[in-house]
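Example record

One chain of 144 residues, shown exactly as stored in the release files.
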Amino acid sequence: MDVDDGPDWREQRQAAVRAHAAADERRRVAEQAEAAELVAWFLGEATRRGLRPAPLLAGSYSGGGRYRTGLTGWYVDRARTRAVDVEGRFYLLTVPGGLRSRLFGATPRPHPAPLVVGAGGRDGESVPLRTLLTRRLDAGDDWP
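Predicted structure tokens for this chain:
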């Protein structure tokens, strides 16, 4: 059965796709704004509690080394792959690595903080950002 749904159907379909994409973008922007507020809260609390920031190191994607970054802040996970710098920017501290990074250091770029860290990962271990930041604050300067 060969039915031509015509231009009306195609236009409706395209409009539905555009509406879905717009809704997805609004949700993403709202989540990023909420996560940015959590990071700002963490920065304020870390400062208020007197947590000492430390130089942040980045690890290579392959896990083969650690590199200077020139950043100062607080690691927020025990693996030291996520951090907040003293200006309140969120970082994923993994970089390509290599000889250049070993000699001159690495330059990770800030990322929008996720509301759920590890969401969609294969290991199934995800944690809300608020929980991760609260754990870090509660550990004080005794963080590994």
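Notes: Residues 2 and 9 are 15 Å apart (CA to CA).
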